[in-house]
Amino acid sequence: MSGTRIGDTGPARTRNAEQTRADILAAARARFAADGFERTTLRAVAADVGIDPALVIRYFGSKKDLFAAAAHVTLDFPDLRGIRPDGLAEVLLPRFFAVWEGQSTFLALLRSAMTSESAAATMRAVFVTQVAPALSVVTPDEPARRIGMLGSFIIGLATARYVLATPGIAEASHAEITRWAGPVIQHLLTGPAPHPDVRPDDG
């Protein structure tokens, strides 16, 4: 698809820095969503906007930095301290659904994270800066382990639903997924932690 221009910007017009940056981000989101991280080029993004590729580098530096800006995710979690454990999924999953289905670059980010360290770093940054701080307030112990396990579950759920189109998951409604995933989310965040393995004495 890299030879096809995404979005016609129309006749040349006077640009200012803010508008140029916004146009580059919009074109990059469309490109990354359509072509993925590896196949998207700065030259293609520039062509979609109708500017010289040097301007893309001027504003964003590199494809890695452009991807990080274009794939920025805001989960906007509320304060979870007043939420009952059995109600956590009903609060958390709508935030995830909004990102999964409402941001065009999410699927590109998810797919690219499997093979691109840049995309994986972007995913980790979202986890460290947004997910972990929001969820740590409800964990009774072992916050890093609990939140890491939940993150693995959530990423697996998104992959099964939106990338692999796994039967039973892909066609399920939001309400159905929430009902099935709710007990898992509750247990991982607030349930009893497993006892550490006890090794028998070697003597």
From TrEMBL:
<dbReference type="GO" id="GO:0003700">
    <property type="term" value="F:DNA-binding transcription factor activity"/>
</dbReference>
<feature type="domain" description="HTH tetR-type">
    <location>
        <begin position="18"/>
        <end position="78"/>
    </location>
</feature>
<keyword id="KW-0238">DNA-binding</keyword>
<protein>
    <submittedName>
        <fullName>Regulatory protein, tetR family</fullName>
    </submittedName>
</protein>
<feature type="DNA-binding region" description="H-T-H motif">
    <location>
        <begin position="41"/>
        <end position="60"/>
    </location>
</feature>
<dbReference type="Pfam" id="PF17920">
    <property type="entry name" value="TetR_C_16"/>
</dbReference>
<dbReference type="GO" id="GO:0000976">
    <property type="term" value="F:transcription cis-regulatory region binding"/>
</dbReference>
<dbReference type="InterPro" id="IPR009057">
    <property type="entry name" value="Homeodomain-like_sf"/>
</dbReference>
<dbReference type="InterPro" id="IPR041678">
    <property type="entry name" value="TetR_C_16"/>
</dbReference>
<dbReference type="InterPro" id="IPR050109">
    <property type="entry name" value="HTH-type_TetR-like_transc_reg"/>
</dbReference>
<dbReference type="InterPro" id="IPR036271">
    <property type="entry name" value="Tet_transcr_reg_TetR-rel_C_sf"/>
</dbReference>
<dbReference type="Pfam" id="PF00440">
    <property type="entry name" value="TetR_N"/>
</dbReference>
<dbReference type="InterPro" id="IPR001647">
    <property type="entry name" value="HTH_TetR"/>
</dbReference>
